[in-house]
């Protein structure tokens, strides 16, 4: 992640300072979108936003709405500008809340209200979790998004105006069962694993997201691609449904876990590379368990496997002499 913006230069003309300040505030939005994949690069965020619109106008609009609502909430309540808001760290859960709710509930005015309300609640929950996790030096990751979206989706059927037009979310294997892997499932699954971080199941959308990560750094893009591959291969080795593998459903949690454990929160060494691989395999393995558990109550897997696995792997670092935290 990049550092916070430089402090203002007293010799800079007032008009230029004001323009730069406005630009800095505007750039928190694409940075917030980019932070879904741990990047504070506004160019990466703009590419991600373009990818969402390619996936469907509703994903772009509602993802943007969630990011703005969460960022403004954090600013209103006085969250640190330099350490948090300017880096986009208060926006990314709002992005995912917006994209997920429009996927599950469709594009309606009720969804608009729920996205705004969810993003506000997610912002407050982010601060609360930061306090709770601070003694353990663990980030919140996408846990606020997971909690808010899980509560809304599980509770949704109780409210007719919320659930009346909800979209069907059955996995691809519901209509195409079988474990026989094909080349098409394989190569599409690798790109879809990157795109499914944002709930996108079109391989070309995943390719655009991958391009955004490469803009942030070619190593970052490579880690995401390899992590998606590892997740897919893990699911295949365990006998997961081929259609689900092709849709990237076993890759996206591995992508986030790989990015977190190699370079973002853990220092880069050959030992940490092995550690990250183990984490990505674990995230793919846990995906089925979390999905089955939440299916009983009408919930969804979301990014829970990434959150839980990465918390465990980071919590273990202080006792692992050959693994060090980044920074």
TrEMBL record:
Site location (Important for channel permeability): 303
GO cellular component, one term: plasma membrane
Pfam family, one: UT
Domain of life, source organism: Bacteria
Membrane-topology descriptor: Multi-pass membrane protein
Protein localization: Cell membrane
Spans traversing the lipid bilayer: 46-73, 85-105, 111-133, 140-159, 204-237, 249-268, 274-294, 301-320
Keyword Cell membrane: yes
GO molecular function, one term: urea transmembrane transporter activity
Keywords per UniProt: Cell membrane, Membrane, Transmembrane, Transmembrane helix
Matching InterPro entries: Ammonium/urea_transptr, Urea_transporter
Signal sequence interval, chain numbering: none
Similarity field: Belongs to the urea transporter family.
Name of the protein: Urea transporter
Species of provenance: Actinomadura citrea
């Amino acid at each position: 992640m990049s550092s916070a913006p430089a402090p203002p230069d007293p010799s800079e003309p007032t008009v230029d300072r004001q323009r730069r300040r406005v630009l800095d505030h505007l750039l928190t939005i694409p940075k917030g979108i980019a932070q879904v994949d741990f990047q504070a690069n506004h160019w990466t965020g703009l590419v991600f936003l373009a990818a969402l619109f390619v996936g469907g106008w509703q994903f772009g609009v509602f993802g943007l709405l969630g990011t703005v609502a969460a960022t403004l909430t954090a600013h209103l309540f006085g969250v640190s500008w330099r350490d948090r808001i300017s880096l986009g760290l208060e926006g990314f859960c709002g992005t995912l809340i917006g994209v997920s709710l429009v996927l599950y509930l469709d594009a309606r005015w009720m969804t608009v209200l729920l996205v705004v309300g969810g993003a506000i609640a997610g912002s407050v929950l982010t601060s609360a979790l930061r306090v709770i996790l601070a003694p353990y030096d663990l980030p919140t990751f996408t846990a606020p998004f997971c909690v808010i979206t899980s509560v809304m989706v599980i509770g949704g059927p109780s409210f007719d105006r919320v659930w009346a037009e909800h979209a069907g979310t059955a996995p691809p294997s519901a209509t195409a069962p079988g474990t026989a892997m094909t080349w098409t499932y394989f190569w599409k699954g690798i790109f879809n694993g990157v795109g499914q971080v944002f709930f996108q199941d079109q391989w070309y959308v995943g390719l655009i997201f991958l391009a955004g990560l490469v803009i942030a750094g070619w190593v970052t893009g490579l880690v995401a691609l390899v992590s998606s591959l590892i997740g897919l291969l893990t699911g295949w080795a365990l006998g997961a449904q081929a259609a689900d593998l092709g849709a990237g459903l076993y890759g996206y949690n591995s992508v986030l876990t790989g990015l977190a454990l190699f370079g973002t929160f853990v220092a880069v060494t050959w030992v940490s590379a092995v550690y990250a691989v183990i984490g990505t395999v674990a995230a793919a393995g846990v995906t089925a368990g979390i999905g089955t558990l939440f299916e009983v109550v009408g919930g969804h897997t979301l990014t829970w496997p990434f959150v839980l696995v990465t918390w465990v792997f980071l919590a273990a670092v202080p006792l692992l002499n050959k693994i060090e935290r980044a920074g």
